[in-house]
Design a protein that fits this description.
CATH superfamily of the largest domain: ATPase, nucleotide binding domain
Number of strands: 16
CATH topology of the largest domain: Nucleotidyltransferase, domain 5
Strand content: 15-25%
Strand order of the largest sheet: 5-4-3-6-9
Oligomer: single chain
Radius of gyration: 24 Å
Distance between the termini: 43 Å
Structural class: alpha/beta
Number of helices: 14
């Protein structure tokens, strides 16, 4: 005998559907330079009168403006393009890291308008006090402009609903209440996620006009460990508890080095920023000298032909390739994107990575996979934190909407 489960649906108000379609139109204007009203009719399938009603409301609020572009006396009346007033609302992004902590204010296009650096401290309360003060100062500078929310990234696992840090081993944080520490004095919404997942989000959210939207890729960040943000069929992979795709803690060597996670032989112990520092200092004979050189300096030395730096970079590249083999076999991505110092030093790493891959993968994989540096050097994580706020504004509405899809765009039913 089959069991039928009945669920209660919340009654949708017309205002909810109207809000959904306004956000849909606004996002299309954001994504498409010089889009017109007739373009919106064609893409959405809405009637011309419905599109005009929505655009008129957005123009009246100051969210969208209309500008005449192109056209000559020979071609007739120039078309009217719709443009997003990007600074009518703002998003705040926060990047938490031992090596690079920042707060930034971004417009609706994700352009960073201001940013400031926060000095790290091993005391979580002291550090978070500094971060809260920086947030308060930036919000004060925003004045009367609407701030949509605050996106927070960190290298570890955080409960995205509560802001409770489950485990951020590189920071030494377990059970830290991020929301409780940062939200004092503000009622703005906070959004939390892992840094590699947000860097992967940035690659998809801030597409250059005319670029193909990536759907299956992995973003690899090696800042303060090694993190991976996995996107499958256009969706970030989070898993049951937000801890999916932690490939930095997959084992390369069963009896290898002890990792901060408690396991041994993890990929990040051989291919991260701290791995590069350790390997360089070992080759240079400076056993306790990791503080004497930075990752950026090693890359700079490598560019100038320094043999110790080049040997260290080649070893990291070979270890990096071992992890890439696992990613390719497990996920079959179309692209692997490298960030942070991996992107900065990619010209020095690339040949060694590909030489190793050719020894370990069938030709059918080698001909399809692309490995490229990040689109936004040094800013992917920070931009991803801002994108976390923007994506909620553009795609999340008061209630769950009944919808259909047309031309790859989700459509709801009232204007």
């Amino acid at each position: 005998m089959s069991t039928v489960t009945l669920t209660t649906r919340r009654v949708l108000r017309k205002g909810d559907l109207r809000e959904a379609n306004e956000r849909l139109i606004l996002n299309l204007v954001r994504q498409t330079p010089d889009i017109s009203r007739s373009d919106l009719v064609r893409i959405t399938g809405f009637s011309a009168s419905s599109v005009s009603l929505i655009i008129n409301r957005l123009v009246k609020r100051g969210w969208v403006r209309e500008e005449r572009v192109g056209g000559t006396p020979q071609t007739g009346r120039p078309p009217v393009a719709l443009r997003l007033n990007a600074e009518c609302m703002l998003a705040v992004g926060v990047e938490i890291s031992r090596t690079r902590s920042r707060v930034a204010v971004a417009d609706l296009h994700g352009n960073i308008l201001r940013q400031r650096t926060i000095a790290w401290h091993d005391s979580a309360p002291l550090y978070l006090g500094r971060l809260r003060s920086a947030l308060e100062a930036e919000l004060q500078l925003c004045g009367k402009t609407t701030v949509l929310g605050i996106g927070v990234s960190l290298p570890g696992t955080v409960d995205r609903n509560t802001g409770l840090v489950i485990a951020a081993e590189d920071l030494g944080w377990f059970g830290v209440d991020l929301r409780g520490e940062l939200a004092r004095g503000t009622d703005l919404p906070f959004y939390f996620d892992n840094n590699a997942k947000l860097a992967a989000t940035a690659e998809r959210w801030y597409l250059r006009a005319g670029s193909k939207e990536p759907r299956d890729y992995v973003f690899v960040t090696a800042q303060g460990g090694l993190g991976t943000g996995v996107v499958i069929e256009g969706r970030i992979l989070h898993g049951a508890d937000g801890e999916a795709s932690e490939f930095g803690h997959t084992m390369l060597y069963a009896d290898g080095r002890k990792c901060v996670c408690g396991n041994t032989g993890c990929w990040e112990e051989y291919a991260s920023d701290r791995a590069l520092l350790r390997i360089y200092n070992d080759i240079a004979g400076r056993r306790n000298g990791s503080q004497d050189v930075t990752v950026e300096e090693i890359i700079k030395k490598g560019r100038s032909g320094d043999k110790v730096a080049l040997r260290a970079l080649e070893e990291v590249a070979q270890n990096l390739a071992l992890g890439f083999v696992n990613l390719i076999w497990a996920l079959n991505p179309e692209t692997i994107i490298v960030g942070d110092h991996l992107a900065e030093g990619w010209p020095l790493l690339e040949n060694a990575v590909w030489n190793s891959l050719r020894k370990r993968l069938p030709q059918r994989y080698l001909t399809r996979i692309r490995i490229v540096p990040e689109q936004h050097p040094g800013r992917s994580i920070l931009l991803g934190a801002a994108a976390c706020v923007l994506s909620h504004f553009f795609t999340t509405f008061s209630h769950q909407q009944p919808s259909a899809e047309r031309n790859g765009v989700t459509i709801v039913s009232a204007q």
